[in-house]
Every structure is written in C-alpha cells, then in structure tokens.
Amino acid sequence: MEEEDTRDYSEPCVQCSVVNWGLTDEGRFYCKSCHNVIERTKEVLTSDVVPNTKIQSISRGFRKRKKIDKGWEWYVCEGFQYILKKQAEALQTLGVCPQMKDEILCNFWRRYLQKSKQAYCTTPASYTSKTLSIYDVSTDVDSEPERISIHGLSSFSESDGDLQTESSFGHVSSIGKASARETTSICSGSVDGGSYLLKRKQGNLRMSMPMTLSFCYIALLWLREPVTLSDLLRFVIDGHIPYLNAFQYFPEEMKLYGVDLKIFRVESWPVYEDVHNKMSELAAFLDLPCFPAITDSCFLHPNILCIKYLMEANLPDELHNWTCRVVKKINVGETDFLTLDPVNKSARKVKYDVLAAATIIVVLKLLFLLDDQYEWLNANFAGKRNQKNKEGCLWFDFKKWYKIIKKSVDMEQKKLDEERARCLWKCEKPLFYSAKEKSVVLKKRQMVVNLQRQFGALSGSMQVAEKQSPSSFQLNWTEENTDGNCFHGHILEGVLQEKGNSLTTMNTKYWLCTVKLCNEKICGQLTHYKESDFPQSYQFVLNLFSFLLRVPASLIHEEVCLIEHKLFKTKLPRK
Amino acid sequence: MDSFVEQLKRGTQEEFTEESAWDGSAVNTTSSSLPAVYLPLLPRYLRHPTTRGRKATEFQETKKACLNYIQDALLHHQWQRAAEFMTNYLETLENTSAEKRIAAPEVIWRIGTEILCHHSKSSIEEFNYFAERMKNLGVKRYLKVCLEHVFHLLCNGLIDDAYQNLSLAEGWRYGEQTAAQDKELKLLQAYKGLLDYYNWAKKRKAMLELDGNFADSVEQEMHSFFRQAAVNLKEIIKIPGVWDPFVKCYVDLLEFYEDYDEVRQVLSEYAYNSKFPPNPNAHVYYYQFLKRHGESKKTLMSVLKILHEIVPSHELMLEYNAMLQKSKKRKNHRLGLEIIFTLLDFAGWKEHVKAWSCLAKQIKQILENSSKHLDWVTEKWNSRKDWWPAFHFSHYLAKRNWQENESLACEKALVAGILLGKDCKYFKYVSHQGCKAKKEKFRTMKKFVKKHSSTHLRASGVLDSCTHL
C-alpha cells in the first residue's frame, strides 16, 4: 500500500539523495533510508485516473485491484509469457516432447527477457535512462535485484499464473517510479504497453504475435522435432495452436485496452518468411550456441523431407534416389549446412521444407524438363506402353499424374478457400480501445452473437464440425486403393537410360529459371517470379508445393533458382 | 541535410538557366512561366523498388471472400448456403476499419432480409426478430429499417402488425437523429395514412352494405379514419416527388366527402408544379377527375396535349384522337392524324386493332374528301417510309396477323395498300387470303386500294423502292 502511494514521487531526498519514500501513519512522506520526514502528503486518487501507471511489487505477490474494472497491473512480456505457455502446451498435446515447454522454451524465454533487459538484470532496459542513477545509490535491501536468482523462474508447468510471473519481475517493483510519467500519456491496460511500441527504435528485438511462433519454432528446432515451419504455421491457422485471440487465455484481471490491442490483436495470419527471419534474428539475439546437429537421420534432413513430400505429391518412390543425388551434389545434406549456428552470421538460415520441395522440383526438371513439350511427349509414350503391358510395374505417366493431382488439389484448394472465408476472427471476449467504447463494443458483440445464433439455426450448422486432428499430411495416397491413383510404385522407365553402370536421364537438356540472381540488398529479394514467364508444367508443380507448404510460389521458386545455381555453378558464365 | 537541399536547389537552378540559354529567348518565356519540379528526396530504405504495398489485413480479406460466397449463393438461390456464410460474415459488424464498420449494417440488413425472405425454415417471427435487431444496430438507419420492415409485413398480409409498427416508429425520438430523418418520417406517416385509407375504404364498403340502422356509428368511425389519413397524405403530397398511390387515395377520400375544389387544386398542383418530377400519371389523374366532373372538351384536350408530349404512346391517346376527330377544326384533325401515327411507332401498339382501324379510317376519310389533305399523310409517311414496311408490313407479319387476328390484318392491309401501293407484300398476302375465304369486305377493300393507289403514287412519288419489300 505504501509503495503504491509513494511511487509517483520520484524526487531524491534532500538529505541523502535516495529515492525511497515511505508513508508515516499520518500519511506524510518520509525517506526510508534517513528517516527524514518531508512536507509532502499522500494524495487522494481521483476515480478516473489514467490506467495504472506503475507496477508495485509483483515479487511480493502484491496485486491490488484499484477498481474492479482496472484489473491487475501487468507487463506486456507477462502477456506474451501466457501466450507462449499456452502454445507450448498445445504443442505438447500434439506430441512434441515434454522437455520443450519447461526446459527449452522456458529457458529461451528467460534468456530473451534477460538479453532484452526486461528481467533478470539490474537495470531493465525501458527504464535504464531514467532509473540508473537512482539504482546506483540505492541501499534498500528490499529492492534487491538478486532476489531473482534465489527464486529463479518457476517453470511454465507450475501453471498458476501468479506464481509464474512473480519471480521474474521482482525487479520491477522498485524501478517503476520514473516510467510512471511516460506511460500516463498513452492509455493501455498493461503497464508498459505505451512504451513497448516505441522500443523498436532502440534496436531491440521486440515481442510480437509472430515472434511467439518464432519462439516455438526455435524450441522445436533445438529439439529437432519432426515439425517444419510450414507445418507449424498450418497448425496455427487450423487452430491447433493458440494464436488468434490468444489473449482470451489471460486471467480475468489482466485487462487489455488501448495500445495493448495493437500488440495482442491478430488480424492476419503469420507469414512464413516473417516468422523464419525473426527466428534467425532471435537465435542471434539470444546468443545461442550451435544447435544440435541435423544429420541424415533427422526429420529435417532434405533426404527425409523429400520422402515425405514425394509421398504427399504422389510421385514415384524412385525419384528419391535422384533427390538424394542432387542433395549430395550441391552439398545441402551436410550437417554444417543444415545445422543452425547463430554465431556464424554469414551462414544461410535453411528453410528445410522449402529446400526439400525445391529439390524435388529440380529433379522433376532434370527428368522431365517441364518445358510443356518433353514431359507430354514422354507421357504419351509411357501411357501407350502402360496400355499394352498391363503386367509388371507401370511406367510413370506425367499426364495421368497431372490430371489426378490437379483434380484433387483444385478440390482441396476450393475447400480451403471456403474454410478461410468461414474463419471466425472474434472471440467471446471483445476488445475495446477505451472504457468509453466498452458499452458500444459489448452491445455489438452481443448483437453479432444473437444474429449468429439466428442464422446458425437457419442453416442448421450450429454444431460446429469436429476439429480435425492435425496431420502432417494434407494429401494421402495409398497403394491399397484400387483406383490406380497412387503413383508411388510407378517406375521411371522411359526417362532413364543405363550408361555404364549407372542410370542417367534420357533427357539431355535443361533450362535455368534464372541466369543471374539479384542482389538481396538492392532488390530486396534474390529472384522475381512472374508466373507467365514460365512453362505451365513448371507453374503447376510450383503451385502444387506452394499449396502443400502454404507458402507463396515465389519462395519455392527462389529456392529452385538457388539450387540450380549450385548445381550448374561450373557451367555458368562467371561475371 | 539542409546543406544538401540547398545544393540540390542550386543545382536545379543552374540547370534551369543553362537550358533556357541554350533554348533561346522564345522558349525562355514559356519555361519561366512553368514552375520547376522539385523531386522529393528518397529515404534510404526506399532506394530499391518495393513490391509490397499497403495490404489489407487478412480479416478484411476473408470477410470480403465471405461476402463473395454469400452473393454467389444468393444468385444461385442457395439460401441454406448463404445463411451458413452469413453466420461467418456477421463479424464484419465489428470490423476494425471504421469505414467498413459503418457500411456493414446496411449490407447485413440487405443480405439478411433476402435470406430470411426465401429460406425455407424462415418465418415471419424470424423476420421480425431480425428487423428488431437491425433497428437497434444503428440510429441512423432506424426509420428506413422500420419502413422496410413494414413493407415486408404488408407483403405477408399482416396489415394490423404493420400499422402498429408504423405508429411505434412515428413516435420514435432520438435527439438530432429525428430531425435528420425527417423525410423518412414523412414517408412513414404517409404509409400510415395509406393504411388509414385502407380501413376507411373497408368501413365504406361495410356501410354501403348495411341498412340505415348502424350506419351512423360506422360513419363516425369512417370519419375519424378519414381525418387521420387526410392529414398524413396531404403532408406528403406537398413535398415534390412521385406520390401516385397517396394522391389516388387522397383524391378518393376527398371526392367521397365532395371536396372537389381541394381535389382540383391538389391534382393540378401535382401535375403542373414544375418542382415535381415529370409524371405522366399526374396528368392522367387530373384528366380522369376532370372527365368525371364533366369538364369541357377544351379543358380535357389541353390536359391530354401535355400528356401526349410526355408519353406519346399513352393509351389515352386513342381517346384524345377520337376527341380531336370530333372537333370541327381542321388543325385538330391534322393533330389527330399525327397522334395516331406516333402511337403506332411503338411496339406495344403493333397489334392494336383499334389503333389500326383509327388510322385506316382517317386515311380513308382524307382520300375520300377529294384528297385535299393528302399532304398531311405524305408528310407523316415520309419520316416512316424507311422503317415501317419492315416494322409493320413484312410478309411474316402478314401471315401471323392473318392467322391470329383477321380484322387486324384487314385494317393493316388497307393502310399498307394505300401507303405502299397494291403491290406491297402485306396487302397482297392478306387480300389474296381474303379473296380465297370469299369475304365481301376484302373485295371492297381491294377495289378501294386499287382506286387510290395511283393517287398515292402521285402524291409521294418516291415510294417505289419500298413497294418491293
């Protein structure tokens, strides 16, 4: 209570120049270090004070409700901590190893808090400029920053919200005074919401909703879990991992409004490249050591991912032999290349899923050329042959494959588009910018719910279809199906020929997607993909993988160009 | 930075003077009148081309896609599907873009009513519930929604409910919003007046059926309905606009109570006040009223003259034509001929026997009157000779008219024969068929045409090409 009332007063004491005020029984201010009583007395707070400006002492479990409406005083990073915890739990129920939450993610998060000077340090970043001097002279044992080391961060699994945050923000109690003035100007539910958005200027790696996924991904990567980034994002969009309206898991008392909305409200799905870039930035920021090596037995190794995507794309198993050869030739299967090493800044941060997909495309180009001519001629040949010889292995018929895949992808795409259009973005707990808006927003929410009920009853779709259990496969093709739609067992006879004692392609030509890569620093990207410039078959294959990975076709195209450059390095004209 | 800008400025100035010196004095004058273009300085991060513009959030995009699905479903009458997507679209009311949030209620209202009107599981209760919600959604649209709700109730025959809703809406007060929706309020009251009129008319019918016994009380009730209706109807009619149903009812009320002066005033105002949009019905009502009260031919004709100018194809034109024919003035005869010709320019009159017989009769009269006014016919015909043959007198039409309506074919054949000569296809076909059927009137017609077709040729002299049609 005392701190609550005195913390707004941050003038140093006249006698000992320490800022550490207490209240006498009469409500007068006195200096706790030299016991000098001054003129100032406790102010009576008016009822409409700006949302509370200073956190008191979370470390002492001090959570005072000023007004019912105002809730707790909380920090933005606490909010993200809640969300990360929920996400980690969701990943665990999806089958990720249990270490992930309490050991890996939790540690990364602590490290992040420390590196970004939000906790576990003597001078939290946002207040440094103003509070440093005060700290240096502080003698009060009560404001000890060392306390943290005693308590440590309770692990995420101690799921009591209060416990969790308690120890991590112990320091905050005593440094609040200065920031009071900053935050009063910007209205927010959290204590530091207003200043949080300004932090970018300081070159700090700021938390954001996509960043939570970068955190999840980096933890998964550390554990070498068989989840690619595209899978992770797909699970997020399909609602298996909390992301949209994740703030609804906050405890009742953590109120969100004002600037907090900008931080926690989600109106767009995470973007692959964005999350990926943030992940590598984060790895560097956290100063992590080299990640566990990705060897050829790991799921993320291109040879293994290629098997997965070949299956999913309904392509012959025999192609795997070729993807392995390409991978070996361009050295992308090397552990050094694949393992994330934050220290080595020049190393490319591998997008495992995109790399595997691009490798398959390059192999298809090597074998079938994909110039809208060769593959069709070849397909006609294979088709005729298959008609004649019904026994034995079937030859891979590109045309038939195209027809089947096209049909099923179009269907799935249509379903997906409809599902997206049906996406509900708002949750039960509506967000409002300020208390003034509250009644309007609540009324509108009620209205929407009522109308949804009415139209839902009309369409009889009130009972929402059961959430499908997540799968890493979006398309399934099995040999058991007798309709002959599965190409896994088909052979590549007709496109390969024996030369010496190894197989080579019949096709002797190749075309490059681009001769010259752009400079990423000047153009912002390495390649510029314009659909109409490329053969239809190539576009189709690209779009197929773009659908499977749910990334833009241009991203895969870029990877294809990079692989080609490595593959044909010696033959390309040197500039 | 400042020094750089300075430099840049100086640089452009130098360039400027150089250029003008090089171009000579003539150009100098023009270029000095043009202000120089100062290119903005590019911030460093904009030095390379960017492909990313400001993108709409995915929330907006999915809602847009959702709307597209709804519209598609509506077009295909898939009400079930539309309702499903509607459930997901409703969130747009909570849109974060203020512009879209403001537009949303209207969209929801339109789509919602459409779905509720057609969905098999929908009922009037569902609709009422929805309408009440929508009324609550925005005060700016309150009265509009009320009115549309009333229309829907009326369409379903729920007149009492509609009346109740109108009374409620009439009493709606919401600060400045009430004043802002003044027009809607007037309209609402007018519809209430209309319903009062409806009740009044029911009472009138009841009274006429009753014997004198109860007539008094009924008459009193009737009178109160009359007063309520008259007040509201009179109000709306004062505002410039097209108020046909209201005017008709108001006139009916007034006429019943024999307030003819008021009727005359209202109707002439409605027809002739230039602030009102041109409205043929206004003239028709006025004409009908005048006719009912036995006004002079001259007055009637003057009303119809204006109507002719607005709608030359109006059905009253036949009446007008008849009136003109009866008049003694030659000028009027000529006008009558013009009216009937213009009337037949319109596809709607193509198969109107009476119109054709009028034309035939008039032309015949002119020819019989020693062809003194043959030039009238020639004049009218000249502007039509290049398209009437195909429009009215083709071989196909001859066949069809003959099959469907002999007397029409007969009248048309006579006109065709006179205007195009006896060799024209229409006349030839019809007269041939007529002779086969051995009908007396065709023989006389043929004779008449033969006698006058020479006159026709002499009169126009340019029709040879058309006769080949």
Automatic annotation (TrEMBL), chain A:
UniProt entry keywords in alphabetical sequence: DNA-binding, Metal-binding, Nucleus, Transcription, Transcription regulation, Zinc, Zinc-finger
One GO molecular-function entry: RNA polymerase I core promoter sequence-specific DNA binding
Keyword set includes Nucleus: yes
Family that this chain belongs to: Belongs to the RRN7/TAF1B family.
One GO cellular component, as annotated: RNA polymerase I core factor complex
UniProt source species: Platysternon megacephalum
Metal-binding listed as a keyword: yes
Name the record gives this protein: TATA box-binding protein-associated factor RNA polymerase I subunit B
From TrEMBL, chain B:
Full protein name: Dystrophin
InterPro entries: SL1/TIF-IB_Component, TAF1A, TPR-like_helical_dom_sf
Pfam families: TAF1_subA
GO terms classed as biological process: transcription by RNA polymerase I
Residues annotated as signal peptide: none
Organism, as annotated: Platysternon megacephalum
Residue ranges of the region described as Disordered: 1-24
GO cellular component entries: RNA polymerase I transcription regulator complex
